[in-house]
Amino acid sequence: MAEKKSTFKGDLKSERAVNEFLQKYLYSYLVDDGIIDSFNSNTTMDQQHKGIDTIMYIINDETEEEARCINIDEKAAIHYARNNLGAEPLSTFAFEVSYLKDGELKRGWLTNEKYKETHAYFLCWLWIKPDANKYNLVCEDILKIEVLSIPKVKTRDKLIMRAMGSKEVKTFESKADILRKK
After folding, report:
1. Phi, psi angle pair for 63, to nearest 5°
2. If you average pLDDT over every residue of the chain, what do you get?
3. Over the stretch 22-40, which tens digit does the pLDDT of each residue have?
4. Which of 131, 145, 168, 173 has its C-alpha lying 20 to 30 A from 24's C-alpha?
5. pLDDT single digits (tens) 117-155
6. Which CA distances in Å does 16 have to 20, 48, 81, 154, 174?
7. First vs last Cα of the chain: how many Å apart?
């Protein structure tokens, strides 16, 4: 059976639900346990357009605030959310290299310079209530999330090195564009 096509507004609402869940059950826990100093998920539209969903502040009173922050881009596999808590998570995650919008090729979040302020990705796999609409989630619909934190630049460079034999992002993008056109 084909997966229902997502909608931009529904995706945004579901992403906000994931962020709210992470605030309640991950970030707050990290603060309470003394692992991080604080976090801010009330990022500006400008920050969100740069791939910053949450900023975590590490504990170090002698460091300037900018050096203490970790800019996190939360990536959730919402469309592959499981409805059964006993179900295994998806065994993979897609990294967006490029996509077509209105017939025009756009840079994806993995290599786009627009997202250069992102320090880490939080890859999220979800389990939701059986009757929840994954295209219109609220926080209470989410039963469980597994999160994998990975550093952006190291991950990007390793993936490109594995695919190309070099870390050259521009060459990778050019070859990806050629392959997409085929």
Report:
1. -105, 145
2. 88
3. 999 999 999 999 999 999 9
4. 131
5. 999 999 999 999 999 999 899 999 999 999 999 999 999
6. 6, 12, 15, 27, 33
7. 27
Using DSSP bridges, classify how beta strands 69-76 and 120-128 pair: parallel, antiparallel or unpaired.
parallel
pLDDT class of 2 with cuts at 50, 70, 90: very low
Both tokens of 173, joined, read 């993008």
Residue with tokens 């931009």: 8
pLDDT of residue 7: 61
19: which 2 tokens? 């962020």
One-letter amino acid at 52 equals I
Any idea which residue has 């490109």 for tokens?
160
Asked if residue 75 lies in contact with residue 122, where contact means CB atoms within 8 angstroms, the answer is: yes
Q: What angle do CA 62, 67, 69 make, to 5 degrees?
A: 110
Residue for token digits 């969100």?
48
Please, which residues have CB within 8 angstroms of residue 10's CB and are 6 or more apart in sequence?
135, 136
| Separation CA 71–CA 16 (nearest Å) | 17
The answer to whether the beta carbons of residues 118 and 51 sit under 8 Å apart is: yes
Read off the tokens for 150. 């990975």
